[in-house]
Design brief:
The chain is an alpha/beta fold. The chain folds into 2 domains: 26-39 and 281-387, Alpha-Beta Complex (Aspartate Aminotransferase, domain 1); 53-279, Type I PLP-dependent aspartate aminotransferase-like (Major domain) (Aspartate Aminotransferase, domain 2). 41% of the residues lie in helices and 14% in strands. It is built from 12 helices and 15 strands. The chain has helices at residues 39-51, 61-75, 90-101, 117-124, 145-152, 175-187, 216-220, 247-259, 269-279, 281-305, 331-342, 368-392; strands at residues 26-27, 84-87, 107-110, 128-131, 135-136, 141-142, 157-163, 191-195, 222-226, 240-243, 310-311, 319-323, 344-345, 347-348, 359-363. It starts with 25 loop residues before the first strand and ends with a helix. 48% of the residues are buried. Bound molecules: pyridoxal-5'-phosphate (PLP). Pyridoxal-5'-phosphate binds next to helix 3.
C-alpha cells in the first residue's frame, strides 16, 4: 500500500460537524471521512494557499477536462464540455433545480429510504415529497415499478430525484433498472435529477452506471450532479458540477444557479477538483480496498457477536445500513441508547423515511482501529440494550 489509511487524525477542535460532540463520544454518523484527503490534492490546495491572494476565480478549461477524462476512463461515459456547469455543491444544485424545474405545490418523487436532505430541500421549497418506497426482502432493495409508475403518472409529479448509487442502502442501480426509470419518467413528463455524488465509492471491481449514459431518453430528460467531494473527502471545499445534455434543461440550470449565486467557485474549488480527477486515482483505488475491508469486518463481527443486527449487503458508499428489525424499539431509540450508554454515535434510520425506522446507518470511512473500537462499543451497548428492553417486558 502506498497510502496509509490507518493513521488517526484528531478532528476535535477543527469545527468539524461530525466531531463537534462530547468528549469520549465516537461519531460515525454524517457522511464525511476521517481520512485526510489524497496527498496529491492536499499539495494542490497548499500550493494555492501559499500564493496568498484569494481573489475571484474563473473556471478554466482544465476543470472541464479533468471531469471529462475521469468519467470517460472510469465510467465509460463521454461528457461534452458544453454540458457542464460549475456549482458550489450538490445540494445547492438540487435545491436550485427543484425551484427552477418544478412549480410550487408540485410533487417531487424520491425512493425511500433515501438521503435525508432530499426531504428538506423539497419541503423547504414548497413542493410535496412523494415517496416511492423501495422494497426490502431482508437482503436487498428493489424498485416496485408498479408503485413507481403510479406515482410518476400523477400529472402533479414533475421531478424524480434519483440517488445513483443509493444512499443509505448502498445500491448500485443496473442498466435495465435505470433504462426503465428513464422510460417511465419520459412517458409521464417527469425530469430526472440524478445525484451521483457517491459514484466513485464502489466496491473494488464494481462500477456504477451514469444515468445519462444509459439511453438517449435518459440523457435528454435528466440533470446530473457529480463532485469529487464524497470520494476525496472535500465536502468543505464546496466544489461540484451539474451536467445537462439537453439544451433547455441546461439553460434553465445555468440561469437558476446564477440567480441562486451557486456558481461562483471559491479559491480552492477548481484546483482541488482538478487535482482529484487528474492525480487522485491511485489513492482512490487503495481507499476502496480499505473501506471494503472495513465493511467486511463489520458484517462478520455482527454476524458472530451481535446477531440481533445485520449489515445489509451493499456494493457502494462507505455507509453501512444496519437492520435492527430483530430488536425491540426503533433504530432511533436504539441509536439514542447506544450513544448515551457507549458514546457510539450512529444515524437513526427514520431520518431517511418511515421505511428506515428499523435501521441505523454507520459510516466506516475511518481508520480500522476506529471501526474496531466502534464494534466493541456496539457489542457492549446492544447487550445492555437487550437486557434493559427485556426487563421492561
Ligand atoms: C446523496 C447525497 N447527495 C448530496 C450530498 C451532499 O452534497 P454537497 O455536500 O455537495 O451539497 C450528500 C452528502 O451526504 C449525499 O449523500
Amino acid at each position: 500500500m502506498r497510502y496509509n489509511f490507518d493513521v488517526r487524525t484528531d478532528r476535535r477542535g477543527t469545527n468539524s460537524l461530525k466531531w463537534d460532540v462530547t468528549e469520549g463520544e465516537l461519531p460515525m454518523w454524517v457522511a464525511d471521512m476521517d481520512f485526510q484527503t489524497a496527498p496529491e490534492i492536499k499539495e494542490a490546495i497548499l500550493k494555492r494557499a501559499e500564493h496568498g491572494i484569494f481573489g475571484y476565480t474563473v473556471i478554466p478549461d482544465e476543470w472541464y477536462h479533468a471531469y471529462i477524462q475521469w468519467w470517460e476512463k472510469r465510467h465509460d461515459f463521454r461528457m461534452e464540455k458544453e454540458w457542464m456547469i460549475f456549482t458550489t455543491g450538490v445540494m445547492p444544485a438540487v435545491s436550485s433545480a427543484v425551484r427552477k424545474l418544478t412549480g410550487v405545490g408540485e410533487n417531487v418523487l424520491i425512493q425511500t429510504p433515501v438521503y435525508n436532505m432530499f426531504f428538506q430541500v423539497i419541503a423547504n421549497n414548497g413542493r410535496n415529497v412523494v415517496e416511492a418506497p423501495l422494497k426490502y426482502d431482508g437482503e436487498n432493495y428493489h424498485i416496485d415499478f408498479g408503485e413507481l409508475e403510479k406515482k410518476l403518472s400523477n400529472p402533479q409529479t414533475t421531478m424524480m430525484i434519483l440517488c445513483n448509487p443509493h444512499n443509505p442502502v448502498g445500491k448500485i442501480w443496473d442498466r435495465e433498472t435505470l433504462a426503465e426509470i428513464g422510460e417511465l419518467c419520459c412517458r409521464h413528463h417527469v425530469t430526472v435529477l440524478s445525484d451521483e455524488i457517491h459514484c466513485d465509492l464502489t466496491a473494488p471491481g464494481w462500477g456504477y452506471i451514469p444515468f445519462a449514459s444509459v439511453s438517449d431518453t435518459c440523457r435528454d430528460i435528466s440533470v446530473t450532479c457529480i463532485a469529487p467531494t464524497k470520494t476525496f473527502n472535500l465536502a468543505g471545499i464546496h466544489t461540484a458540477a451539474v451536467v445537462a445534455a439537453d439544451e433547455v434543461l441546461r439553460h434553465k440550470m445555468r440561469q437558476t444557479l446564477n440567480t441562486d449565486e451557486a456558481s461562483e467557485p471559491n479559491a480552492f474549488a477548481v484546483d482541488a477538483a482538478v487535482a482529484a480527477f487528474t492525480r487522485g486515482e491511485p489513492w482512490l483505488d487503495e481507499l476502496r480496498e480499505y473501506i471494503w475491508e472495513n465493511k467486511r469486518m463489520v458484517s462478520e463481527f455482527l454476524a458472530a457477536h451481535v446477531s440481533e443486527i445485520k449489515a445489509v449487503p451493499s456494493k457502494a458508499t462507505y455507509l453501512i445500513w444496519l437492520d435492527c428489525g430483530c430488536l425491540v424499539g426503533t433504530g432511533r431509540e436504539i441509536g439514542r441508547y447506544l450513544r448515551e450508554k457507549t458514546g457510539l454515535y450512529l444515524s437513526g434510520g427514520s431520518q431517511y423515511g418511515k421505511c428506515g425506522e428499523d435501521f441505523l446507518r454507520m459510516n466506516v470511512a475511518c481508520p480500522r482501529s476506529q471501526v474496531e473500537e466502534a464494534l466493541g462499543r456496539m457489542q457492549e451497548g446492544i447487550a445492555a440494550y437487550t437486557q434493559w428492553a427485556g426487563s421492561l417486558c
